[in-house]
Design brief:
Length: 130
């Protein structure tokens, strides 16, 4: 799996379609164990520069800090509220069918739950029978 370089990743973070050779990485990005943290980091690429600019506005430091805090909270709230839809849209832009990310994550969760259930049965069911 080939990872995009820093400039391509920045473009990807703001919505640019990656070349097809990064298709596997884009799917991994949307379905890995830490996909939510990766998503928030990518949204920060657009939010942090705006907050930095707002800190340069004239006015008291408390007013500017309050503005930055309020704007960042609202931006992250709305970004996270539509996280799954945004990820699915991004995967669609990369050429994947709709709901691919959701299906891959569900399959991974199902496999993880099956392992946990098997460990539970091995530990508690066999010890209670004896």
């Amino acid at each position: 799996m080939e990872r995009p370089g820093a400039l391509r990743w920045l473009g990807y973070a703001v919505g640019v379609k990656l070349p097809d050779r990064y298709k596997d990485w884009a799917l991994y990005d949307a379905t890995s164990k830490h996909w939510r943290a990766r998503y928030v980091l990518q949204r920060s690429v657009g939010i942090v520069p705006l907050c930095a600019v707002w800190l340069l506005l004239p006015g008291s430091i408390w007013l500017r800090l309050s503005l930055v805090l309020m704007a960042a909270l609202v931006a992250y709230f709305y970004s996270c509220a539509y996280m799954e839809e945004s990820i699915e849209h991004r995967l669609g832009r990369q050429g994947f069918p709709h709901h691919t990310g959701r299906h891959v994550r569900a399959e991974a969760a199902e496999a993880k739950n099956a392992e946990a259930t098997a460990r539970y049965i091995a530990r508690y069911r066999t010890s209670s029978e004896g």
